[in-house]
Backbone:
């Protein structure tokens, strides 16, 4: 006697409820390796836990994990490479009440940093 129900349930789970596939976000002009070095130089790890970097326990800002899956940045910007760069260059200019300071990140540096952050899928 076949038992169709559990099979159907498994098929539905596999189709809809698995962990989301990371979808790569391409940052035109961004170099992820340079971005990683810049993140170290700017000391982002003092406030953020960032995959691939030694920052375990930093908890002033949110962990920068799975950013390519995120709908919003800092809760106020749509998550696009352009808005990521905008945020990195001048957080208080986007949200005057944010605790993230303006670190003087240039446009090119922000592109590199964005490329690194979007390349980390965990
Ligand atoms: C002094 C602490 C501090 C430093 C240094 C800092 N940040 Fe932040 N960052 C924050 C805080 C706090 C937030 C949350 C902002 C908010 O929601 O208003 C944040 C938010 C963010 C976000 C949005 C995250 C999200 O989940 O939407 C990104 C991306 C980010 N920071 C990247 C960086 C990078 C890259 C650097 C280094 C260039 C950096 N931050 C340096 C405190 C900091």
Residues:
């Amino acid at each position: 006697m076949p038992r169709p129900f559990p099979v159907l349930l498994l098929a539905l789970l596999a189709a809809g409820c698995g962990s989301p596939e990371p979808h790569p976000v391409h940052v035109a002009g961004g170099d992820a390796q340079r971005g990683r070095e810049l993140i170290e130089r700017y000391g982002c790890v003092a406030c953020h836990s960032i995959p691939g970097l030694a920052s375990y326990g930093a908890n002033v800002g949110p962990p920068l994990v799975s950013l390519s899956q995120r709908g919003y940045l800092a809760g106020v910007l749509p998550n696009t490479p352009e808005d990521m760069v905008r945020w990195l260059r001048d957080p208080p200019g986007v949200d005057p009440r944010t605790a993230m300071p303006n670190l003087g990140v240039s446009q090119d540096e922000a592109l590199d940093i964005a490329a690194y952050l979007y390349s980390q899928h965990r």
Q: What stands out?
A: The mean pLDDT is 87. DSSP finds five helices and two strands in the chain. The chain has one domain: 24-119.
